[in-house]
Amino acid sequence: MSRGQYTRWAVIASGEGGGRIASQFFNRSENPGIEDRILVMNTNRNDIRNTIDRIDASITDADDIGENHALEFGDKQGAGNSYYYGRQAAEQDLDRITNHIKQTFNTADAFLYVATLGGGTGNGSIPFVVDQFKEGLTVSESEPWMDSVIHVAMAVWPYYWEPDQRHFNAVSGLSRLLRNRDGGQNADMVMLAANSHLDGENGSDYDRVNELIIEAVDLMIGAGRETHGVIDVEDLVTIPRQYGSYHFTPAVATEMNGDIYELEYMFDKAAENPFVPMDVATSQIVFPVVRAPESMIQNGDITEPEVYQAFNQWQNKHDLSVAGQASLTPKRGRGSDVDVLLLLGGFDLSPLLNHSMDQYEQVRDNLARGNTAGAEGLTEREVQTVLDNLADYRDQNEG
């Protein structure tokens, strides 16, 4: 991709939960990084219609939405909560899915896949589709642009109170986004958010969670909209690839008065709000993104060297030594409200996984005893491979 133009993202969401998040991109008043490059997929026509009904009047032609922005796949009306059936549906219609994506998004530099990990459709199909694109199995020689596309996944953890099967799905989905069946890297970057961590353990306000996710994605994508003083998606995946640590979570603080607060303090406030339970001190990679009013940047009230200096001071204060690059990106308007995103990567996954491993093991033990509830269609060997791949990834990251 050229450094002289915006990074062009395409959003590909699968399943009802992923579609619920992706539908909010249609409502953004300004989104030059994405524009209308949005696709919602599902195995159930009614669920797709529910997603379309959430889309605001920004696109009013339902036929146009259906043709260009929605795709039904598979021969079943839904995958239930079985990620095996979600993957199977994607396998059945792989050519139709990939051809639609390639023909509709052939100007994109990066794909942002969105899925909730507790369900079956998105959790089953997204890791499979990413793997197929990454392996080049669906890319013809006439489409060389696909060779440089970067694949980023936004994966949402179920509420802690949800049934065992959803946590079994979540652990499996994380493993499959990180590693393919052969143990190689799958997605170039995996972004994680946990419902209960964002909304409280007893919460159920999906809209609130989704708004926070959209805000973090806007900040991340915003870093690639300008050609001066920014990092871009290529930077976000190159350094993690060198470390073998490519799982991340956003940490966000917004609308902080730049006339009052120091940048180092803003980083502290953002670090208090990661999207999953985690210890910031275990991060190996951090990408700070500071978004400030264009007038503040033009007037020199906030500069790229100051962002780097504050980032270094923040690291020293917390006895951190991490890889990463900082970014200063403008937003329209005047005033002094500054937004900060910290992309925290390579951290210890234990605080997140500890909420789900007991439930995962319960479903796995049931499968070993011949009870397939929660693991329909799966073999013990496949379940073990998923677990081994996740353990191997964690061993490499967490020592």
UniProtKB/TrEMBL annotation:
InterPro entries associated with the record: Tubulin/FtsZ_GTPase_sf, Tubulin_FtsZ_GTPase
Tubulin/FtsZ GTPase domain mapped to chain residues: 37-224
A Pfam cross-reference name: Tubulin
Coiled coil: none
SUPFAM superfamilies the UniProt entry points to: Tubulin nucleotide-binding domain-like (SSF52490)
Taxonomy, superkingdom: Archaea
Protein's name in the database: Tubulin/FtsZ GTPase domain-containing protein
Organism of provenance: Haloarchaeobius litoreus
